[in-house]
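Hi, can you check this record?
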Amino acid sequence: MSISGGLPQQFNRAIDLSALAAKKTPTQDSVSAGGSARRDVDENSLVKEIIPGSKQVPVILVVWSPRSEESKLLVQALEALHRKYNEASQRWSLAVLNADAQPAVAQALRVATIPTVMAIIAEQVAPLFDSMIPADQLEVVLNKVVELAAEQGVNGISNGVPNEQVIPDDPDLVIADQALEDGDFQGAITTFEKVLARKPGDPEVTQGLANAKLLLRTSLADVTAAQAAVLANPEDAKAQALAADFEILSGQAEAALDRLIQFISSNQGAQRDIARTHLLELFQNFAPTEPILTAARSALSKALF
């Protein structure tokens, strides 16, 4: 995609995120503007801080994967530009979403390619580009985003000071997120379980633990072999479960859940129980209010009864 002349045309068809932002809490109403060049986000912080904060400061959101070297280079380049241009004032904020750790969020953002860079202005998001581009072109795009934001009254935060203090993340959750980013999935699982022990039922922690378990399972398997296994033996619940794992990871969440629901509907006994148990575990990869989860729960009830 050519971007040297300005922002891509799809910015005029930006997705309105105000409905998601409506779930924010009063104590978390702005993007964290000081400190490090980037903000690692998940669904909770995206909804409660990044989206509403885009009414103050334009946000550059990078959807990346630690498995992609191009992703890493792009994040580093944007971090360098953020430090260069945001020392005196907060012209734009840099947010980073790990697609491996947050597959459902990446799907909700309609991400088809890793890396993908988006702009969020006044609770609207639109894709900018989906590959590494030269630094001078990066600067052109960023300047255009800042100009467009200013036209909409989003002028940034002077001296990097937000209007409200953002509540800091739980230190253990920071450790768990870093473990995910480093590919230490077992370490992330251990830390999430530690947090869950003192925060029973916490939806954010439950989802983080489920994501870490999903990443560990798929890291120990081969996607091609998993696809071959389910074709060779479609009545094997474990093969179906692993195929669903890889579909979740690739952003095909609806197909993954439907795969297991259909299997449950057409099977009985131990194989059905294996599939049902795995499906319930996959449910934890989604926020409780996500429409895809509500629909899947309803479909499961019909399949069971």
About this structure: The chain has two domains: 9-158, 171-304.
